[in-house]
Amino acid sequence: MSSIADLRKSYERAELSEDASHADPLQQFDQWLQEAIRSEVPEPNAMTLATAGSDLRPSTRVVLIKGYDARGIVWYTNYDSRKGRELAGNPYAALQFHWVELERVVRIEGRVEQVSAEDSDAYFNSRPLDSRIGAWASPQSQVISGRGVLVANAAKYGAKFLLQPPRPPHWGGYRLAPDRWEFWQGRPSRLHDRLRYTLAGQDSWTRERLAP
Question: Of 18, 11, 15, nearest to 209 (Cα)?
Answer without folding.
Answer: 18
